[in-house]
Known about the structure:
Layout: E1 2-8, E2 11-18, H1 25-31, E3 40-45, H2 48-62, E4 67-72, H3 81-94, E5 101-106, H4 108-120, E6 127-131, H5 136-139, E7 144-149, E8 152-159, E9 164-168, H6 177-194, H7 196-210, H8 214-233, H9 249-258, H10 266-285, H11 290-301, H12 314-323, E10 333-339, E11 342-347, H13 351-360
Parallel strand pairs: 2-9, 3-4, 3-5, 5-6, 6-9
Antiparallel strand pairs: 1-2, 7-8, 10-11
Helix pairs in contact: 6-7, 6-8, 6-10, 7-8, 9-10, 9-12, 10-11, 10-13
This protein binds nicotinamide-adenine-dinucleotide and zinc ion.
Amino acid sequence: MRTLTVNTSNQCYSIHIGRGTYQMLPRLMKEVGVEKDRKLMVITDSSVAPLYGQSLQASLRAEGYQVGMTVFPAGEESKNLSVVERVIGDCLQFGLDRSSVVLALGGGVVGDLAGFVAATYMRGIPFIQLPTTLLAHDSSVGGKVGVNHALGKNYIGAFHQPLMVVFDVDVLRSLPARQVHSGLAEVAKHALIWDVSFVEWLEAHAEELLALSPERLTEAIFRGCEVKSAVVSQDEKELGIRSILNYGHTIGHALEAVSGYRVYTHGEAVAIGMAGASRLSVRLLGAPGELVDRTEQLLRRLRLPIRYAENWPLPALLEAMKKDKKARGGQYTFVLSRKLGQVEMVRGIEEAEIVQTLKEISTQ
Length: 364
Ligand SMILES: NC(=O)c1ccc[n+]([C@@H]2O[C@H](COP(=O)([O-])OP(=O)(O)OC[C@H]3O[C@@H](n4cnc5c(N)ncnc54)[C@H](O)[C@@H]3O)[C@@H](O)[C@H]2O)c1
Ligand SMILES: [Zn+2]
Protein backbone atom coordinates (compact mmCIF):
# COMPACT_ATOMS: atom_id res chain seq x y z
CA MET A 1 0.00 0.00 0.00
CA ARG A 2 1.22 3.52 -0.78
CA THR A 3 0.09 6.58 1.10
CA LEU A 4 0.10 10.16 -0.08
CA THR A 5 -0.62 13.11 2.20
CA VAL A 6 -2.64 15.97 0.79
CA ASN A 7 -2.28 19.31 2.52
CA THR A 8 -5.09 21.81 2.33
CA SER A 9 -5.27 25.16 4.11
CA ASN A 10 -7.22 23.88 7.08
CA GLN A 11 -6.82 20.13 6.93
CA CYS A 12 -4.53 17.39 5.81
CA TYR A 13 -5.67 13.96 4.72
CA SER A 14 -4.23 10.71 3.44
CA ILE A 15 -4.83 8.82 0.24
CA HIS A 16 -4.12 5.11 0.67
CA ILE A 17 -3.69 3.15 -2.55
CA GLY A 18 -3.10 -0.56 -2.96
CA ARG A 19 -4.56 -4.05 -2.99
CA GLY A 20 -7.07 -5.28 -0.45
CA THR A 21 -7.19 -1.90 1.27
CA TYR A 22 -10.88 -2.22 2.20
CA GLN A 23 -9.91 -4.90 4.68
CA MET A 24 -7.79 -2.30 6.42
CA LEU A 25 -10.66 0.17 6.70
CA PRO A 26 -11.36 -0.41 10.42
CA ARG A 27 -7.73 0.32 11.28
CA LEU A 28 -7.50 3.28 8.90
CA MET A 29 -10.74 4.75 10.22
CA LYS A 30 -9.47 4.42 13.76
CA GLU A 31 -6.37 6.36 12.73
CA VAL A 32 -8.55 9.31 11.69
CA GLY A 33 -10.63 9.09 14.83
CA VAL A 34 -13.67 7.24 13.52
CA GLU A 35 -14.58 4.82 16.30
CA LYS A 36 -17.33 2.21 16.24
CA ASP A 37 -19.85 4.40 18.03
CA ARG A 38 -20.20 6.62 14.95
CA LYS A 39 -22.79 5.65 12.38
CA LEU A 40 -21.61 5.08 8.82
CA MET A 41 -23.62 5.54 5.64
CA VAL A 42 -22.42 3.97 2.40
CA ILE A 43 -23.59 6.01 -0.59
CA THR A 44 -23.12 4.16 -3.86
CA ASP A 45 -24.73 3.51 -7.25
CA SER A 46 -26.65 0.59 -8.71
CA SER A 47 -23.65 -0.90 -10.54
CA VAL A 48 -21.22 -0.71 -7.65
CA ALA A 49 -23.64 -1.79 -4.88
CA PRO A 50 -23.90 -5.46 -5.93
CA LEU A 51 -20.18 -5.66 -6.76
CA TYR A 52 -18.69 -4.09 -3.63
CA GLY A 53 -21.34 -2.25 -1.60
CA GLN A 54 -23.07 -5.18 0.01
CA SER A 55 -19.84 -6.94 0.93
CA LEU A 56 -18.37 -3.74 2.34
CA GLN A 57 -21.46 -3.15 4.46
CA ALA A 58 -21.44 -6.74 5.69
CA SER A 59 -17.75 -6.71 6.59
CA LEU A 60 -18.03 -3.41 8.48
CA ARG A 61 -21.10 -4.70 10.33
CA ALA A 62 -19.17 -7.81 11.26
CA GLU A 63 -16.56 -5.50 12.79
CA GLY A 64 -19.25 -3.93 14.97
CA TYR A 65 -20.08 -0.74 13.05
CA GLN A 66 -23.63 0.46 12.47
CA VAL A 67 -23.69 0.83 8.69
CA GLY A 68 -26.53 1.97 6.44
CA MET A 69 -26.44 1.99 2.66
CA THR A 70 -28.27 4.00 0.04
CA VAL A 71 -28.11 3.25 -3.68
CA PHE A 72 -29.02 5.50 -6.62
CA PRO A 73 -29.16 4.57 -10.33
CA ALA A 74 -25.68 4.50 -11.94
CA GLY A 75 -24.86 7.24 -14.43
CA GLU A 76 -24.26 10.95 -14.84
CA GLU A 77 -28.05 11.53 -15.14
CA SER A 78 -28.32 10.80 -11.42
CA LYS A 79 -25.97 13.63 -10.49
CA ASN A 80 -28.74 16.08 -9.63
CA LEU A 81 -30.53 17.74 -6.73
CA SER A 82 -33.51 15.39 -6.65
CA VAL A 83 -31.23 12.40 -6.09
CA VAL A 84 -29.41 14.44 -3.40
CA GLU A 85 -32.73 15.03 -1.68
CA ARG A 86 -33.64 11.35 -1.81
CA VAL A 87 -30.25 10.31 -0.45
CA ILE A 88 -30.51 12.87 2.35
CA GLY A 89 -33.93 11.39 3.19
CA ASP A 90 -32.29 7.96 3.55
CA CYS A 91 -29.59 9.46 5.77
CA LEU A 92 -32.22 11.05 8.01
CA GLN A 93 -34.18 7.83 8.23
CA PHE A 94 -31.08 5.91 9.18
CA GLY A 95 -30.52 8.48 11.92
CA LEU A 96 -27.22 9.98 10.75
CA ASP A 97 -26.19 12.84 12.99
CA ARG A 98 -23.38 15.39 12.93
CA SER A 99 -20.88 12.85 14.18
CA SER A 100 -21.71 10.27 11.50
CA VAL A 101 -19.53 9.57 8.48
CA VAL A 102 -20.46 9.15 4.81
CA LEU A 103 -18.59 6.50 2.80
CA ALA A 104 -18.64 7.46 -0.89
CA LEU A 105 -18.18 4.16 -2.70
CA GLY A 106 -18.02 4.52 -6.48
CA GLY A 107 -16.73 6.53 -9.41
CA GLY A 108 -16.62 10.28 -9.84
CA VAL A 109 -20.40 10.56 -9.92
CA VAL A 110 -20.76 8.93 -6.50
CA GLY A 111 -17.79 10.92 -5.14
CA ASP A 112 -19.26 14.23 -6.30
CA LEU A 113 -22.82 13.49 -5.17
CA ALA A 114 -22.04 11.77 -1.87
CA GLY A 115 -19.45 14.47 -1.14
CA PHE A 116 -22.09 17.13 -1.76
CA VAL A 117 -24.52 15.32 0.55
CA ALA A 118 -21.79 15.21 3.22
CA ALA A 119 -21.01 18.91 2.66
CA THR A 120 -24.62 19.95 3.19
CA TYR A 121 -26.15 17.36 5.52
CA MET A 122 -26.69 19.17 8.83
CA ARG A 123 -24.31 21.87 7.51
CA GLY A 124 -21.58 19.36 6.86
CA ILE A 125 -20.44 15.98 8.14
CA PRO A 126 -17.20 14.10 7.40
CA PHE A 127 -16.86 11.76 4.45
CA ILE A 128 -14.45 9.11 3.28
CA GLN A 129 -13.89 8.51 -0.43
CA LEU A 130 -13.64 4.95 -1.67
CA PRO A 131 -13.08 5.56 -5.41
CA THR A 132 -13.83 2.62 -7.70
CA THR A 133 -12.88 4.06 -11.09
CA LEU A 134 -9.51 5.17 -12.38
CA LEU A 135 -10.95 8.54 -13.29
CA ALA A 136 -11.96 9.04 -9.67
CA HIS A 137 -8.26 9.45 -8.75
CA ASP A 138 -8.81 12.90 -10.20
CA SER A 139 -11.98 13.70 -8.28
CA SER A 140 -10.61 12.36 -4.99
CA VAL A 141 -8.18 15.29 -4.71
CA GLY A 142 -9.19 18.93 -4.62
CA GLY A 143 -12.29 18.90 -2.47
CA LYS A 144 -14.72 19.82 -5.22
CA VAL A 145 -18.10 18.18 -4.72
CA GLY A 146 -21.39 18.88 -6.41
CA VAL A 147 -24.12 18.01 -8.85
CA ASN A 148 -25.38 19.13 -12.25
CA HIS A 149 -28.18 21.56 -13.07
CA ALA A 150 -30.40 21.14 -16.13
CA LEU A 151 -28.58 24.18 -17.58
CA GLY A 152 -25.07 22.84 -17.12
CA LYS A 153 -22.64 20.41 -15.54
CA ASN A 154 -21.33 20.92 -12.01
CA TYR A 155 -23.16 24.23 -11.52
CA ILE A 156 -24.18 23.37 -7.94
CA GLY A 157 -21.42 22.55 -5.54
CA ALA A 158 -19.17 23.14 -2.58
CA PHE A 159 -15.63 22.59 -1.40
CA HIS A 160 -15.52 19.76 1.12
CA GLN A 161 -12.33 17.82 1.82
CA PRO A 162 -12.59 14.12 2.64
CA LEU A 163 -11.38 12.69 5.94
CA MET A 164 -9.33 10.26 3.88
CA VAL A 165 -9.35 8.43 0.56
CA VAL A 166 -8.94 4.66 0.31
CA PHE A 167 -8.30 3.24 -3.15
CA ASP A 168 -8.46 -0.52 -3.63
CA VAL A 169 -6.91 -1.19 -7.05
CA ASP A 170 -8.43 -4.67 -7.17
CA VAL A 171 -11.90 -3.18 -7.75
CA LEU A 172 -10.68 -1.71 -11.04
CA ARG A 173 -10.73 -5.25 -12.52
CA SER A 174 -14.49 -5.09 -13.03
CA LEU A 175 -14.37 -1.76 -14.85
CA PRO A 176 -15.35 -1.89 -18.53
CA ALA A 177 -12.22 -1.43 -20.69
CA ARG A 178 -13.50 1.85 -22.07
CA GLN A 179 -13.73 3.27 -18.54
CA VAL A 180 -10.15 2.18 -17.86
CA HIS A 181 -8.92 3.99 -20.97
CA SER A 182 -10.98 7.03 -20.07
CA GLY A 183 -9.40 7.18 -16.62
CA LEU A 184 -5.95 6.86 -18.15
CA ALA A 185 -6.60 10.07 -20.10
CA GLU A 186 -6.65 12.07 -16.86
CA VAL A 187 -3.58 10.19 -15.63
CA ALA A 188 -1.83 11.15 -18.89
CA LYS A 189 -3.01 14.74 -18.47
CA HIS A 190 -1.44 14.94 -15.02
CA ALA A 191 1.85 13.72 -16.48
CA LEU A 192 1.75 15.98 -19.55
CA ILE A 193 1.11 19.19 -17.61
CA TRP A 194 3.63 18.66 -14.83
CA ASP A 195 6.19 15.91 -14.97
CA VAL A 196 8.28 14.64 -17.88
CA SER A 197 9.55 11.68 -15.85
CA PHE A 198 5.92 10.62 -15.30
CA VAL A 199 5.34 10.86 -19.08
CA GLU A 200 8.35 8.59 -19.61
CA TRP A 201 7.10 6.18 -16.97
CA LEU A 202 3.69 6.00 -18.68
CA GLU A 203 5.33 5.43 -22.06
CA ALA A 204 7.31 2.55 -20.58
CA HIS A 205 4.43 0.93 -18.67
CA ALA A 206 1.39 1.56 -20.87
CA GLU A 207 0.84 -2.12 -21.67
CA GLU A 208 1.04 -3.22 -18.04
CA LEU A 209 -1.39 -0.48 -17.07
CA LEU A 210 -3.83 -1.63 -19.73
CA ALA A 211 -3.46 -5.16 -18.37
CA LEU A 212 -4.39 -3.72 -14.94
CA SER A 213 -1.17 -4.67 -13.19
CA PRO A 214 -1.94 -3.79 -9.54
CA GLU A 215 1.57 -2.49 -8.89
CA ARG A 216 1.54 -0.24 -11.96
CA LEU A 217 -1.98 0.99 -11.24
CA THR A 218 -0.98 1.84 -7.68
CA GLU A 219 1.99 3.83 -8.97
CA ALA A 220 -0.04 5.60 -11.68
CA ILE A 221 -2.78 6.60 -9.24
CA PHE A 222 -0.21 7.71 -6.67
CA ARG A 223 1.63 9.91 -9.14
CA GLY A 224 -1.59 11.27 -10.68
CA CYS A 225 -2.89 12.24 -7.23
CA GLU A 226 0.51 13.72 -6.41
CA VAL A 227 0.37 16.08 -9.39
CA LYS A 228 -3.21 17.08 -8.75
CA SER A 229 -2.47 17.68 -5.12
CA ALA A 230 0.62 19.78 -5.92
CA VAL A 231 -1.42 21.98 -8.24
CA VAL A 232 -4.47 22.25 -5.99
CA SER A 233 -2.51 23.00 -2.83
CA GLN A 234 -1.22 26.16 -4.51
CA ASP A 235 -4.72 27.27 -5.43
CA GLU A 236 -7.55 25.66 -3.49
CA LYS A 237 -10.33 27.91 -4.73
CA GLU A 238 -9.37 27.90 -8.38
CA LEU A 239 -8.25 31.48 -8.77
CA GLY A 240 -5.12 30.86 -10.78
CA ILE A 241 -2.79 27.94 -11.38
CA ARG A 242 -5.47 25.32 -10.79
CA SER A 243 -6.89 26.12 -14.21
CA ILE A 244 -3.95 24.26 -15.80
CA LEU A 245 -5.83 21.09 -14.84
CA ASN A 246 -8.09 21.99 -17.75
CA TYR A 247 -5.45 21.01 -20.28
CA GLY A 248 -7.30 19.37 -23.18
CA HIS A 249 -10.64 20.27 -21.63
CA THR A 250 -11.59 23.29 -23.78
CA ILE A 251 -11.92 21.17 -26.91
CA GLY A 252 -12.90 18.15 -24.79
CA HIS A 253 -15.85 19.89 -23.16
CA ALA A 254 -16.95 21.28 -26.53
CA LEU A 255 -16.95 17.79 -28.06
CA GLU A 256 -18.94 16.46 -25.11
CA ALA A 257 -21.44 19.31 -25.35
CA VAL A 258 -22.07 19.14 -29.12
CA SER A 259 -22.50 15.36 -28.93
CA GLY A 260 -24.99 15.61 -26.07
CA TYR A 261 -22.55 13.71 -23.81
CA ARG A 262 -23.43 10.50 -25.64
CA VAL A 263 -20.61 9.83 -28.07
CA TYR A 264 -17.37 10.11 -26.08
CA THR A 265 -16.46 9.31 -22.53
CA HIS A 266 -15.00 12.32 -20.72
CA GLY A 267 -11.50 10.86 -21.04
CA GLU A 268 -11.87 10.25 -24.78
CA ALA A 269 -13.00 13.84 -25.35
CA VAL A 270 -10.10 15.15 -23.23
CA ALA A 271 -7.61 12.97 -25.12
CA ILE A 272 -8.71 14.46 -28.45
CA GLY A 273 -8.58 17.86 -26.74
CA MET A 274 -4.98 17.30 -25.60
CA ALA A 275 -3.96 16.32 -29.12
CA GLY A 276 -5.53 19.61 -30.27
CA ALA A 277 -3.95 21.65 -27.48
CA SER A 278 -0.50 20.26 -28.26
CA ARG A 279 -0.90 21.32 -31.90
CA LEU A 280 -2.10 24.77 -30.94
CA SER A 281 0.88 25.02 -28.58
CA VAL A 282 3.36 24.43 -31.37
CA ARG A 283 1.74 27.12 -33.50
CA LEU A 284 1.11 29.76 -30.87
CA LEU A 285 3.85 29.26 -28.28
CA GLY A 286 6.55 27.89 -30.53
CA ALA A 287 6.65 24.58 -28.62
CA PRO A 288 8.84 21.94 -30.32
CA GLY A 289 7.07 19.63 -32.79
CA GLU A 290 8.12 16.75 -30.58
CA LEU A 291 5.38 17.83 -28.17
CA VAL A 292 2.68 16.75 -30.61
CA ASP A 293 4.39 13.44 -31.42
CA ARG A 294 4.99 12.45 -27.79
CA THR A 295 1.48 13.50 -26.73
CA GLU A 296 -0.27 11.67 -29.53
CA GLN A 297 1.92 8.60 -29.22
CA LEU A 298 1.29 8.32 -25.48
CA LEU A 299 -2.47 8.70 -25.92
CA ARG A 300 -2.51 6.11 -28.70
CA ARG A 301 -0.55 3.69 -26.52
CA LEU A 302 -3.18 4.14 -23.82
CA ARG A 303 -5.86 3.23 -26.43
CA LEU A 304 -7.25 6.73 -26.51
CA PRO A 305 -8.54 8.59 -29.56
CA ILE A 306 -6.62 11.62 -30.85
CA ARG A 307 -9.00 12.52 -33.70
CA TYR A 308 -12.76 12.85 -34.01
CA ALA A 309 -14.55 11.33 -36.95
CA GLU A 310 -17.96 12.98 -36.59
CA ASN A 311 -18.96 15.96 -38.66
CA TRP A 312 -19.82 18.37 -35.82
CA PRO A 313 -20.78 21.85 -37.06
CA LEU A 314 -17.91 24.27 -36.53
CA PRO A 315 -20.07 27.15 -35.17
CA ALA A 316 -21.49 24.86 -32.45
CA LEU A 317 -18.01 23.74 -31.39
CA LEU A 318 -16.71 27.32 -31.31
CA GLU A 319 -19.73 28.54 -29.38
CA ALA A 320 -19.25 25.78 -26.79
CA MET A 321 -15.60 26.78 -26.36
CA LYS A 322 -16.55 30.43 -25.85
CA LYS A 323 -19.09 29.41 -23.22
CA ASP A 324 -16.64 27.18 -21.38
CA LYS A 325 -16.69 28.07 -17.70
CA LYS A 326 -12.99 28.96 -17.81
CA ALA A 327 -13.41 31.38 -20.70
CA ARG A 328 -13.82 35.02 -19.75
CA GLY A 329 -15.51 37.82 -21.62
CA GLY A 330 -16.25 35.67 -24.65
CA GLN A 331 -12.53 35.24 -25.41
CA TYR A 332 -11.11 31.90 -26.36
CA THR A 333 -8.93 30.63 -23.54
CA PHE A 334 -6.74 27.55 -23.71
CA VAL A 335 -4.23 25.84 -21.49
CA LEU A 336 -1.21 25.42 -23.75
CA SER A 337 2.19 23.87 -23.40
CA ARG A 338 5.61 25.44 -23.96
CA LYS A 339 7.26 22.06 -23.70
CA LEU A 340 6.46 18.60 -22.43
CA GLY A 341 5.54 18.75 -18.75
CA GLN A 342 4.89 22.48 -18.61
CA VAL A 343 1.68 24.37 -19.37
CA GLU A 344 0.14 27.79 -18.94
CA MET A 345 -3.13 29.57 -19.55
CA VAL A 346 -3.36 31.59 -22.76
CA ARG A 347 -6.20 34.06 -23.34
CA GLY A 348 -7.49 35.83 -26.42
CA ILE A 349 -6.69 33.16 -29.00
CA GLU A 350 -7.70 33.97 -32.58
CA GLU A 351 -10.65 31.99 -33.89
CA ALA A 352 -8.79 31.16 -37.12
CA GLU A 353 -6.10 29.32 -35.12
CA ILE A 354 -8.71 27.19 -33.41
CA VAL A 355 -10.49 26.44 -36.67
CA GLN A 356 -7.19 25.28 -38.17
CA THR A 357 -6.53 23.06 -35.14
CA LEU A 358 -9.99 21.52 -35.34
CA LYS A 359 -9.31 20.70 -39.00
CA GLU A 360 -6.11 18.92 -37.99
CA ILE A 361 -7.78 16.76 -35.35
CA SER A 362 -10.83 15.90 -37.43
CA THR A 363 -10.76 13.02 -39.87
CA GLN A 364 -13.60 14.47 -41.93
N1 LIG B 1 -14.78 16.63 -8.25
C1 LIG B 1 -13.84 16.63 -9.14
O1 LIG B 1 -12.79 17.25 -8.97
C2 LIG B 1 -14.02 15.84 -10.38
C3 LIG B 1 -12.93 15.62 -11.23
C4 LIG B 1 -13.11 14.82 -12.35
C5 LIG B 1 -14.36 14.29 -12.63
N2 LIG B 1 -15.40 14.52 -11.78
C6 LIG B 1 -16.74 13.96 -12.06
O2 LIG B 1 -16.62 12.55 -12.13
C7 LIG B 1 -17.69 12.06 -12.92
C8 LIG B 1 -17.18 10.96 -13.81
O3 LIG B 1 -16.62 9.94 -13.02
P1 LIG B 1 -16.50 8.44 -13.53
O4 LIG B 1 -15.92 8.41 -14.89
O5 LIG B 1 -15.84 7.68 -12.46
O6 LIG B 1 -18.02 8.05 -13.76
P2 LIG B 1 -19.04 7.14 -12.94
O7 LIG B 1 -18.97 7.40 -11.50
O8 LIG B 1 -20.37 7.34 -13.60
O9 LIG B 1 -18.54 5.65 -13.24
C9 LIG B 1 -18.63 5.14 -14.55
C10 LIG B 1 -19.48 3.86 -14.60
O10 LIG B 1 -18.72 2.78 -14.05
C11 LIG B 1 -19.45 2.12 -13.03
N3 LIG B 1 -18.46 1.64 -12.07
C12 LIG B 1 -17.82 2.36 -11.13
N4 LIG B 1 -16.89 1.61 -10.54
C13 LIG B 1 -16.94 0.39 -11.10
C14 LIG B 1 -16.19 -0.81 -10.91
N5 LIG B 1 -15.17 -0.87 -10.06
N6 LIG B 1 -16.54 -1.87 -11.66
C15 LIG B 1 -17.52 -1.79 -12.57
N7 LIG B 1 -18.24 -0.69 -12.81
C16 LIG B 1 -17.95 0.39 -12.07
C17 LIG B 1 -20.39 3.16 -12.50
O11 LIG B 1 -21.51 2.57 -11.90
C18 LIG B 1 -20.76 3.93 -13.78
O12 LIG B 1 -21.75 3.25 -14.46
C19 LIG B 1 -18.27 13.24 -13.66
O13 LIG B 1 -19.54 13.55 -13.12
C20 LIG B 1 -17.29 14.36 -13.40
O14 LIG B 1 -17.92 15.63 -13.35
C21 LIG B 1 -15.25 15.28 -10.68
ZN1 LIG C 1 -11.48 15.99 -16.68
